[in-house]
Design goal:
Largest sheet: 6 strands, antiparallel, barrel
Mean pLDDT: 88
Order of helices and strands: EEEEEEEEHH
Strand content: 25-35%
Number of helices: 2
Helix content: 10-25%
Structural class: mainly beta
Strand order of the largest sheet: 3-4-5-8-7-6
Radius of gyration: 19 Å
Number of strands: 8
């Protein structure tokens, strides 16, 4: 908001988490302390910062609606499945903005909305700060994110599957 502009160097990107680490050389840059996002509780008051629809910086208020939410968005639906859900309005342009608790600590990074119209209907998702910190650390240390892969997927057991596996019920 002070009108300064900086060039940034891309340190690393991670498509599955939709996160990147950028290096900016500057002075008097403000930072946010990271909260332990595991300690976030449903009902906690949160503030969502961003630039919705390109109108300029804004802050909206809401609560944490749920934790551990999954979305079906991302390359081959492989996006992380541990989002913080909030009803703080997150609209197009808020992605990458901060989701902050009332102590001014970063609890998440605004990432997605779930909406049939593309506008906010009170279902927004943020990447938890702990996950973002893990991705950031790996990008800085290794240039990429290392993940384990089991080669297993989960699906509901339907009556047809139950019969094929000789199960008593689905």
């Amino acid at each position: 908001t002070d009108g300064r502009s900086f060039d940034a160097k891309v340190v690393g990107t991670d498509a599955p988490s939709d996160l990147a680490v950028l290096k900016v050389d500057g002075s008097n840059l403000q930072t946010l302390p990271l909260a332990d996002s595991e300690k976030v509780r449903v009902g906690d008051v949160v503030l969502a910062f961003g630039n919705p629809l390109g109108i300029g910086q804004t802050v909206t208020m809401g609560i944490v609606s749920a934790k551990g939410r999954a979305t079906a968005v991302g390359p081959a639906n492989d996006s992380y499945q541990d989002f913080i859900q909030t009803d703080a309005p997150i609209n197009e342009g808020n992605s990458g903005g901060a989701l902050v608790n009332t102590q001014g600590e970063l609890i998440g990074i605004n990432s997605q909305i779930l909406s049939p119209s593309g506008g906010n209907i009170g279902i927004g998702f943020a990447i938890p700060a702990n996950m973002a910190h893990n991705v950031m650390t790996q990008l800085i240390d290794h240039g990429n994110v290392r993940r384990g892969l089991l080669g297993v997927s989960v699906q509901a057991v339907t009556p047809d599957i139950a019969r094929s596996l000789h199960l008593d019920n689905a």
